[in-house]
Description:
The chain is an all-alpha fold. It has a domain at 28-83. It is built from five helices and no strands. It has helices at residues 2-20, 28-44, 51-57, 73-76, 79-83. The chain is globular, with a radius of gyration of 14 Å. The chain starts with a helix and ends in a 12-residue tail after the last helix. The mean pLDDT is 94.
Amino acid sequence: MERATERMAAGIRAFARHHSGTLEKYHDTITRAFVRLVAAHLRETPELDNFAAFAVAHPRLFHPDLPFAFYSKSRLMSAEARTGWLEPDLRSLPM
Protein backbone atom coordinates (compact mmCIF):
# COMPACT_ATOMS: atom_id res chain seq x y z
CA MET A 1 0.00 0.00 0.00
CA GLU A 2 2.89 2.37 0.68
CA ARG A 3 4.10 2.12 -2.92
CA ALA A 4 0.57 2.64 -4.27
CA THR A 5 0.12 5.68 -2.03
CA GLU A 6 3.38 7.24 -3.20
CA ARG A 7 2.53 6.58 -6.85
CA MET A 8 -0.95 8.07 -6.46
CA ALA A 9 0.40 11.14 -4.66
CA ALA A 10 3.09 11.66 -7.32
CA GLY A 11 0.55 11.29 -10.12
CA ILE A 12 -1.88 13.78 -8.62
CA ARG A 13 0.93 16.26 -7.90
CA ALA A 14 2.11 15.96 -11.52
CA PHE A 15 -1.45 16.44 -12.79
CA ALA A 16 -1.92 19.54 -10.60
CA ARG A 17 1.43 20.98 -11.64
CA HIS A 18 0.70 20.35 -15.33
CA HIS A 19 -2.74 21.95 -15.28
CA SER A 20 -2.17 24.84 -12.90
CA GLY A 21 1.59 25.30 -12.83
CA THR A 22 1.58 24.89 -9.04
CA LEU A 23 0.73 22.36 -6.35
CA GLU A 24 -1.95 24.66 -4.92
CA LYS A 25 -4.73 22.21 -5.82
CA TYR A 26 -2.93 19.15 -4.36
CA HIS A 27 -3.91 18.04 -0.84
CA ASP A 28 -1.61 15.40 0.63
CA THR A 29 -3.75 14.28 3.58
CA ILE A 30 -6.91 13.88 1.47
CA THR A 31 -4.98 11.91 -1.15
CA ARG A 32 -3.44 9.54 1.39
CA ALA A 33 -6.69 9.14 3.34
CA PHE A 34 -8.61 8.16 0.20
CA VAL A 35 -5.96 5.59 -0.75
CA ARG A 36 -6.35 4.01 2.69
CA LEU A 37 -10.14 4.04 2.42
CA VAL A 38 -10.13 2.47 -1.04
CA ALA A 39 -7.64 -0.19 0.10
CA ALA A 40 -9.83 -1.06 3.09
CA HIS A 41 -12.90 -1.41 0.88
CA LEU A 42 -10.95 -3.55 -1.60
CA ARG A 43 -10.03 -5.90 1.26
CA GLU A 44 -13.71 -6.09 2.28
CA THR A 45 -14.89 -7.04 -1.21
CA PRO A 46 -12.05 -8.86 -3.00
CA GLU A 47 -14.57 -10.64 -5.24
CA LEU A 48 -15.34 -7.39 -7.06
CA ASP A 49 -13.16 -7.55 -10.13
CA ASN A 50 -14.06 -4.34 -11.96
CA PHE A 51 -14.41 -0.68 -11.14
CA ALA A 52 -18.11 -0.41 -11.95
CA ALA A 53 -19.03 -3.17 -9.51
CA PHE A 54 -16.72 -1.69 -6.87
CA ALA A 55 -18.30 1.76 -7.30
CA VAL A 56 -21.83 0.36 -6.95
CA ALA A 57 -20.86 -1.57 -3.83
CA HIS A 58 -19.12 1.39 -2.18
CA PRO A 59 -20.90 4.62 -3.16
CA ARG A 60 -19.81 6.37 0.03
CA LEU A 61 -16.25 6.49 -1.30
CA PHE A 62 -17.44 8.95 -3.94
CA HIS A 63 -19.02 11.41 -1.50
CA PRO A 64 -16.88 14.55 -1.21
CA ASP A 65 -17.59 14.90 2.51
CA LEU A 66 -16.23 11.44 3.39
CA PRO A 67 -12.93 12.76 4.84
CA PHE A 68 -14.91 14.81 7.37
CA ALA A 69 -16.09 11.58 8.98
CA PHE A 70 -12.48 11.24 10.15
CA TYR A 71 -11.17 14.82 10.29
CA SER A 72 -12.47 18.05 11.73
CA LYS A 73 -12.78 20.77 9.13
CA SER A 74 -10.11 22.90 10.79
CA ARG A 75 -7.57 20.06 10.79
CA LEU A 76 -8.25 18.89 7.24
CA MET A 77 -8.28 22.38 5.78
CA SER A 78 -5.03 23.40 7.48
CA ALA A 79 -1.87 24.22 5.56
CA GLU A 80 -0.14 21.32 7.31
CA ALA A 81 -2.72 18.82 6.01
CA ARG A 82 -2.42 20.21 2.50
CA THR A 83 1.35 19.81 2.35
CA GLY A 84 1.86 16.66 4.42
CA TRP A 85 0.13 13.75 6.11
CA LEU A 86 -1.87 14.39 9.26
CA GLU A 87 -3.55 11.65 11.28
CA PRO A 88 -7.31 12.07 11.71
CA ASP A 89 -8.59 13.77 14.83
CA LEU A 90 -12.18 12.44 14.95
CA ARG A 91 -11.80 8.72 14.32
CA SER A 92 -9.12 6.42 12.94
CA LEU A 93 -8.87 5.53 9.30
CA PRO A 94 -8.72 1.83 8.47
CA MET A 95 -5.22 0.48 7.96
